[in-house]
Automatic annotation (TrEMBL):
<feature type="short sequence motif" description="Q motif">
    <location>
        <begin position="29"/>
        <end position="57"/>
    </location>
</feature>
<keyword id="KW-0539">Nucleus</keyword>
<comment type="similarity">
    <text>Belongs to the DEAD box helicase family. DDX47/RRP3 subfamily.</text>
</comment>
<dbReference type="GO" id="GO:0005730">
    <property type="term" value="C:nucleolus"/>
</dbReference>
<dbReference type="InterPro" id="IPR011545">
    <property type="entry name" value="DEAD/DEAH_box_helicase_dom"/>
</dbReference>
<dbReference type="InterPro" id="IPR027417">
    <property type="entry name" value="P-loop_NTPase"/>
</dbReference>
<keyword id="KW-0378">Hydrolase</keyword>
<keyword id="KW-0547">Nucleotide-binding</keyword>
<dbReference type="InterPro" id="IPR014001">
    <property type="entry name" value="Helicase_ATP-bd"/>
</dbReference>
<dbReference type="GO" id="GO:0016787">
    <property type="term" value="F:hydrolase activity"/>
</dbReference>
<dbReference type="InterPro" id="IPR001650">
    <property type="entry name" value="Helicase_C-like"/>
</dbReference>
<feature type="domain" description="Helicase ATP-binding">
    <location>
        <begin position="60"/>
        <end position="231"/>
    </location>
</feature>
<dbReference type="GO" id="GO:0005524">
    <property type="term" value="F:ATP binding"/>
</dbReference>
<protein>
    <recommendedName>
        <fullName>RNA helicase</fullName>
        <ecNumber>3.6.4.13</ecNumber>
    </recommendedName>
</protein>
<dbReference type="GO" id="GO:0003724">
    <property type="term" value="F:RNA helicase activity"/>
</dbReference>
<dbReference type="InterPro" id="IPR050079">
    <property type="entry name" value="DEAD_box_RNA_helicase"/>
</dbReference>
<feature type="domain" description="Helicase C-terminal">
    <location>
        <begin position="242"/>
        <end position="402"/>
    </location>
</feature>
Length: 469
């Protein structure tokens, strides 16, 4: 059945008083030309941001003027700074605690936004608080008691604090930002967003930013925008020009073998592999490690500390493969990602834009390869329709790939046994009060790296696959 959220023929109605900005861009502008104060210009310079991006050139002056902004720009285009700079400038003019609230759909994105705010605001002493699920409520309540200037939160955990943390309220809030706004305004967060909107002032500034923005009137009106300006610096659903995109049509039973072939062929590159389920990320990561690759899983069933640890290892290049669910598909800025592999095709076409946006960021090049099985043809056609282009086939030599089948099958069997042992071990610990539900999935699979010796000898030594004789 066609998902209305995913349909390319989405309602074209606009909020009646919104305005489209379509002025020629002056690529040589500086942050000072946009009206940014000196102390923030210096912060941009210290971060090595030599000149503003297209979305920043359009959005920052309007935001500084006091307008509500709907910002639509491709992934990796500097949207965070487009709302962070105007907020910090307004905070300089009117210092107060609980000044701005940034809502994000994922925990990892919340931490990343906080890092950008602290980097930009280092010269003015800005204090931020990250309020997300999976972390201790009491320590978060103590952080909120210190009254930070900026709160970056996921909707669910923020509602928990609004209802249960004594003395905490947002009655004086001046700015509300919804990053990845189409997700925040989606039904997933409907209940929480309604609760938040009821307890914050109507007299505030509101910014919505995303790479894929809904145009449905009811959804945008829920954000209570006032005379918004729509800033759109790319076509509706666009992937960046530097991104090379391919598809690979394969029978579902050979997906694992083709994955190993591509990973082996492109060894030395940093890759993100997207799977549909938490279980899938664990199995694939274990299988790849059994074959000698430094893979690490990331999914929503891991504790928050373990999720952050996985990201840190990948960002530090201690792991070359991050096997993730869609928790890592939006907003995360990991500059060194060279290749994105859609092992499982996304159910919603818009998620494709966000997934492949993890590579080819900020003018760099990158590659994306999407696996299409006999069951995915309709979903894949929707993606092509959404991005408005036909993707080329990724060339492989079938005989060479299928030569790996035996080894991959053995690694996969071992991974299934390992995962079963892990789950049983965690279950036993929980029965004896030694573990929590959050421990269901480990963040790494290093407990099992010894298995690699069985296949390739020394754990740290990778052996290139050769064609099966």
């Amino acid at each position: 059945m066609e998902n209305s959220e995913d349909s390319v023929d989405e309602e074209q109605d606009q909020i009646s008083d919104s305005k489209q900005v379509e002025q020629p861009l002056n690529e040589n502008k500086s942050f000072k030309d946009l009206g940014v104060v000196d102390v923030l210009c210096e912060a941009c310079e210290s971060l090595n941001w030599k000149c503003p991006t297209k979305i920043q050139i359009e959005a920052i002056p309007l935001a500084i003027q006091g307008r509500d902004v709907i910002g639509l720009a491709e992934t990796g285009s500097g949207k965070t700074a487009a709302f962070a700079i105007p907020i910090l400038q307004a905070l300089l003019d009117n210092p107060q605690r609980y000044f701005a609230l940034i809502l994000t759909p994922t925990r990892e994105l919340a931490y990343q936004i906080s890092e950008q705010f602290e980097a930009l605001g280092s010269g003015i002493g800005v204090k931020c608080a990250v309020i997300v699920g999976g972390m201790d409520m009491m320590s978060q309540a103590l952080t909120l008691a210190k009254k930070p200037h900026v709160i970056i939160a996921t909707p669910g955990r923020l509602v928990d604090h609004l209802e249960n943390t004594k003395g905490f309220n947002l009655k004086a809030l001046k700015f509300l930002v919804m990053d990845e706004a189409d997700r925040i305004l989606n039904m997933d967060f409907e209940f929480e967003v309604d609760k938040i909107l009821k307890v914050i002032p109507r007299d505030r500034r509101t910014f919505l930013f995303s790479a894929t923005m809904t145009k449905k009137v009811q959804k945008l009106q829920r954000a209570s925008l006032k005379d918004p300006v729509k800033v759109e610096v790319s076509t509706k659903y666009q992937t960046v020009e530097q991104l090379q995109q391919y598809y690979l049509f394969i029978p579902v039973r050979f997906k694992d073998v083709y994955l190993v072939h591509i990973v082996n062929e492109l060894i030395g590159n940093s890759m993100m592999i997207f799977c549909a389920t938490c279980n899938g990320t664990m199995k694939i990561a274990l299988m790849l490690r059994n074959l000698g690759y430094t893979a690490i899983p990331l999914n929503g069933q891991m504790s928050q500390n373990k999720r952050l640890s996985a990201l840190t290892k990948f960002k530090a290049k201690n792991r070359s493969l991050l096997v993730s669910t869609d928790v890592a598909s939006r907003g995360l800025d990991i500059p060194h990602v060279d290749i994105v592999i859609n092992f499982d095709i996304p159910t919603h076409s818009k998620d494709y834009i966000h997934r492949v946006g993890r590579t080819a960021r900020a003018g760099r090049s990158g590659r994306a390869i999407t696996f299409v099985t006999q069951y995915d043809i309709e979903l894949y056609q929707r993606i092509e329709q959404l991005i408005g282009k036909k993707l080329p086939l990724y060339e492989t030599q079938d005989e060479e790939v299928l030569g790996l089948e035996e080894r991959v099958a053995e690694a996969k069997r071992t991974a299934t046994e390992q995962l079963k042992d892990m789950l049983e071990s965690k279950s036993t610990k929980r029965k004896h009060g030694q573990g929590t539900k959050d421990d269901n999935f480990d963040n790494d699979t290093e407990a099992f790296v010894g298995v690699r010796k069985k296949f390739f000898g020394k754990p740290n030594k990778r052996k290139k696959f050769s064609k099966k004789k």
